[in-house]
Write a structure and sequence with these properties.
This protein is α/β, with parallel strands linked by helices. The chain has helices spanning about 70-80, 100-110, 125-135, 145-155, 160-170, 190-200, 230-245, 265, 300-305, 315-320, 325-330, 340, 345-350, 355-360, 370-380; strands spanning about 40, 85-90, 110-115, 135-140, 175-180, 205-210, 250, 285, 290-295, 305-310, 380-390, 400-405. The strands form two sheets. It has a ten-stranded mixed beta sheet with strand order 7-6-5-4-3-2-1-8-9-10. Strands 11-12 form a two-stranded antiparallel ribbon.
Length: about 400
């Protein structure tokens, strides 16, 4: 907590213009014609915070963000693709002047619309405007109590602003949710944070591990280690009945897994009663503010950008964009390392593509797994990740880490 934030890279670099005219497959297959249920749409990269875990290094708008007319046409295409729900993000979505116009257009097509926000500038007036435009709910990010949250979010007073935003959303009649990045600073404060959510009337809490992407790769000592999951999951299990009593549904993000003794506790509500594989390109869709389409909003742009809506219709990119086919076509043979031989390999397929790709430079082997940590612990071992190459300082960039296997309890 006392360490100064690293400043050897730009806080908010300008994103490069969108990559254009990306190749599409000549035809789609039956497997490609699956439809996304959920879309996360970054409508601007402009932001009023400077979060140290921000994978996109948000702050400045992209140089070629979609116009209002292009956004409204994209709304039409989302409806034609039968998307059921869209979450608007940034940067900070409300910094875009036509934010409410986009919300209203989505609502008019019957697409459930929400927003994820840091809340610094989410005033009561803006919350009422979002409700009037048809927005259903807002997820406000809280990453610890006051000092911890402010340090992680990069702006003093951002915690108090987030609490005011939560109250404004509830007063406006919006459903209030929260999300939390779990790292070594926020993890000890999760019990107190849950009480804070209860006091402000939250109805759901999404939890995920901070991924070493963008600014998060610049300060690796803040990140959890894989063996920290041995403490984290029992902690979360102890918080589950408290959350239930407060009427708060705990939603475990896709990078917080997998298949340990608490699997049914956190995933029992799903159709299979347990975690499945990565949904990028099968059930989820990501959109960048310049029109780039990805299977998941968190994935890196260069490797996972499948096309741009200025060059091809959304449906064509979804069905024929080459990166979209990764999760549709991969098998156990695409896995490597421990994940290749794991008992759950064919169900899990290494879990979160984002985590393994950002960490190790390629997907298919994910050490951030409770089951895996327990298996190593039973053998008196643990896995530790250490950085071997810095991130260059660009939006959606990554460093490079390696996995070190060592005796459990190594200092």
């Amino acid at each position: 907590m006392a360490q100064k934030r690293p400043r050897h890279l730009p806080v908010a670099p300008l994103a490069a213009p969108a990559r254009r005219q990306l190749p599409l497959a000549s035809a789609s297959t039956a497997r490609d014609r699956v439809r996304p249920i959920y879309c996360v749409w970054e409508i601007t990269l402009a932001c009023d915070l400077s979060c140290r875990h921000c994978g996109s290094r948000a702050g400045r708008a992209r140089p070629d963000e979609l116009s209002t007319a292009e956004c409204l046409d994209l709304v039409r295409q989302l409806g034609a693709l039968d998307v059921k729900e869209v979450t608007l993000i940034g940067g900070e979505a409300y910094l875009r002047p036509d934010f409410l116009q986009i919300v209203q257009a989505l609502t008019e097509l019957g697409i459930a619309t929400s927003m994820t926000t840091g809340g610094r500038g989410l005033t009561p007036e803006l919350a009422r405007g979002a409700k009037a435009a048809g927005m259903g709910g807002v997820s406000v990010s809280l990453d610890g109590l006051g000092p911890t949250h402010d340090r992680l979010r990069g702006v003093e007073g951002s915690f108090d602003a987030a609490l005011r935003a939560m109250d404004a959303c509830r007063s406006a009649g919006l459903r209030l949710y929260n999300n939390t990045q779990i790292n070594r600073l926020s993890m000890p404060e999760l019990p107190q944070l849950l009480q804070t959510l209860g006091e402000h009337g939250s109805s759901a809490w999404q939890l995920q591990i901070t991924v070493p992407m963008g600014r998060a790769a610049d300060e690796p000592e803040v990140l959890l280690q894989p063996y920290d999951l041995l403490e984290l999951f029992p902690l979360l299990a102890s918080l589950k009945p408290i959350a239930d009593s407060l009427g708060i549904f705990i939603f475990r993000g896709n990078n917080l897994g997998y298949f340990g003794p608490y699997e049914s506790l956190f995933k029992g509500w799903t159709p299979n009663g347990h975690h499945g594989s990565c949904g990028a390109g099968t059930s989820t869709l990501g959109i960048e503010a310049d029109g780039t389409i990805k299977g998941c909003p968190s994935l890196g742009t260069i490797a996972w950008g499948a096309g741009n809506v200025r060059d091809a219709p959304l449906e064509d990119i979804w069905e024929r964009g080459l990166p979209m086919r990764y999760t549709r076509e991969r098998t156990v043979d695409d896995l490597w390392g421990y994940c290749r031989e794991c008992y759950y390999a064919d169900v899990c397929r290494a879990g979160c593509t984002w985590m393994s790709d950002m960490l190790l430079g390629k997907p298919g082997n994910n050490p951030y797994c409770h089951h895996r940590a327990m298996e190593f612990s039973a053998r008196g071992l643990r896995e530790r990740v250490e950085k071997v190459a810095d991130a260059p300082g660009l939006p959606f960039d990554q460093g490079l880490f390696r996995i070190v296997e060592e005796p459990l309890g190594t200092v």
